[in-house]
Specification:
Blueprint: E1 2-3, H1 10-18, E2 27-32, H2 38-47, E3 51-56, H3 61-71, E4 78-80, E5 87-88, H4 92-100, E6 109-118, E7 124-127, H5 137-140, E8 152-154, H6 155-164, H7 172-183, E9 185-197, H8 210-223, H9 226-241, H10 247-258, H11 261-265, H12 275-286
Parallel strand pairs: 1-2, 2-3, 6-9
Antiparallel strand pairs: 4-8, 5-9, 6-7, 6-8
């Protein structure tokens, strides 16, 4: 768990992790330079022996999570990521492990799931329904539908992520999903494994209204460097893992990294979950912004 100024709901999240049933849980937490009482809350749990605390400066959510993964002893078979203000169902980890344990552990394995949107007081609002028409390698190239607070990865995937380093990783959960889909397997569970608290201060805009989400994406895409960051993340995937990716997936990746605009815009398979965003993506290809 990476924490940054999350003291308001931190205890509830930690307790839901420690109350998991059917699995042995060890909690690693990193404070990313909080200026509120987060460190005090974490220190109290550390004093009880309930978690191992890493104290650090503010490096941002991506590097904070990736450094945490790298700090975990290799004796742990599975690693799960969590936010600082959600509440987990008590069977979240046991369910994930039950779906992963019989799979080939020599290759990267990733579990992810849906969740339930809640307001700041944890009143249920709606199910997430991120996976609307399937999730695979191609559909992960230009859209992240794997929410970091739901994922559980095996040791093979963790090792691959660690060895790849942090440079040019745009979103840590997206990157982990890309590596899993490129080199191994991704298990998408329709079961909502947690209650996702929306407070207005969350990092991700997911769950906002359609208009506010559209405004956010227009602002970040066209006023920032997000489009180039997405491309750099795919270039990293190719440069680090290209030789290990199957020829079919490698051909798909290279067609988007090096193909002509018209070929990308007319790619014959679906790339986004929502049709409106599919059309917008094809236009971005056509005008050369991706």
């Amino acid at each position: 768990m990476s924490v940054y100024n999350g003291s308001s709901h931190l205890q509830e999240q930690i307790d839901s992790i420690l109350n998991q049933v059917g699995v042995a849980v060890y909690l690693f937490a990193r404070d990313d330079g909080s200026t509120d009482e987060s460190l005090d809350v974490l220190t109290r749990y550390e004093a009880r022996g309930s978690l191992e605390l890493l104290r650090g400066g503010n490096v941002g959510v991506v590097k904070s999570f990736l450094s945490l993964i790298a700090a975990i002893d290799t004796s742990f078979d599975y690693i799960a990521l969590c936010d600082q203000d959600d509440v987990w169902r008590n069977d979240k980890l046991a369910r994930a492990v039950s779906l992963l344990v019989d799979k080939d552990q020599s290759i990267p394995q990733l579990y992810c799931s849906e969740y339930i949107f809640c307001d700041a007081n944890m009143n249920e609002v709606a199910p997430s329904h991120l996976n609307q028409n399937g999730v695979n390698f191609t559909k992960l190239l230009y859209e992240n539908v794997v929410s970091g607070n739901t994922i559980v990865m095996n040791r093979s995937l963790a090792n691959a992520v660690i060895n790849a380093g942090m440079d040019d990783v745009y979103c840590h959960d997206w990157w982990i999903a890309l590596v899993a889909a490129a080199l191994g397997e991704l298990t998408y569970d329709e079961y909502p494994s947690l209650y996702y608290r929306r407070t207005g201060a969350n990092v991700s805009p997911t769950g906002n209204s359609g208009i506010s989400l559209l405004k956010y994406r227009l602002k970040t895409f066209f006023q920032g460097r997000q489009l180039s960051c997405i491309t750099h993340q795919l270039e990293k995937l190719d440069s680090v893992f290209g030789s290990a990716i199957s020829s079919n997936k490698s051909d798909v990746l290279n067609s988007f990294l090096h193909g002509r605009r018209i070929h990308k815009a007319c790619y014959p398979q679906r790339l986004r979950q929502k049709m409106s965003e599919e059309i917008a993506l094809r236009l971005l290809f056509l005008i050369g912004l991706l």
